[in-house]
TrEMBL record:
Pathway: Cofactor biosynthesis; ubiquinone biosynthesis. GO terms for biological process: determination of adult lifespan; regulation of gene expression; regulation of reactive oxygen species metabolic process; ubiquinone biosynthetic process. PANTHER family: 5-DEMETHOXYUBIQUINONE HYDROXYLASE, MITOCHONDRIAL, COENZYME Q10 BIOSYNTHESIS PROTEIN 7. This is COQ7 protein. Keywords: Iron, Membrane, Metal-binding, Monooxygenase, Oxidoreductase, Ubiquinone biosynthesis. CDD domains: DMQH.
Length: 192
């Protein structure tokens, strides 16, 4: 466009002119960090439970998370957003959370999945509200992506419940602790 900056990445065309750059930067940065962390959680779970009966279920959810991360990697380039400086920390923390919950067994891993995916779904809903208030037409593509990923995360949440997450040892305490960690990670990754 005349006077605008356009980028072309794969089939995505992004016009940076007229967007609320601070809002979009914050959304893409934190979502990238979240999908990165989710990948590390599932990697940790697979390291412990990959050869168990629940391994294929975890792998299926992990494969979706890999696709989400790939998309946010593309969006970071297209929108010229820098990643959070906390990625090395999320790398280690995510893997330890995944492996640690899996050491509690299948139910522990699924409790972790329920806690994380519920937190992420709520966070995506908040972002959808923000973008709808900003300009639903201007952010149509980003809204579609976030809505799809939110639905995928909620599906993972439901899979966790179907696989006895609520029967994990100290489920309520575990879920609360993980969700507090998720809120802190979201807060920090949006800003740093």
């Amino acid at each position: 466009p005349v006077g605008g900056v356009s980028l072309r990445l794969c089939s995505t065309r992004v016009t940076l002119e007229g967007i609320n750059k601070p809002v979009i930067d914050r959304i893409i940065r934190v979502d990238h960090a979240g999908e990165y962390g989710a990948n590390r959680i599932y990697a940790g779970q697979m390291a412990v439970l990959g050869r168990s009966s629940v391994g294929p279920v975890i792998q299926q959810m992990w494969d979706q998370e890999k696709a989400h991360l790939k998309k946010f990697n593309e969006l970071m380039v297209a929108y010229r957003v820098r990643p959070t400086v906390l990625l090395p920390f999320w790398n280690v923390t995510g893997f330890l959370l995944g492996a640690g919950s899996a050491l509690l067994g299948k139910k522990g891993a699924m409790a972790c999945t329920v806690a994380v995916e519920e937190s992420i779904s709520d966070h995506y809903n908040s972002q959808i509200r923000t973008l709808m208030e900003e300009d639903p037409e201007k952010y149509k593509e980003l809204l579609q992506i976030i809505k799809q990923f939110r639905d995928d995360e909620w599906e993972h949440h439901d899979i966790g419940l179907e696989h006895d997450a609520e029967a994990a040892p100290a489920y309520a305490v575990l879920k609360t602790a993980i969700q507090l960690g998720c809120k802190a990670a979201i807060f920090l990754s949006e800003r740093i």
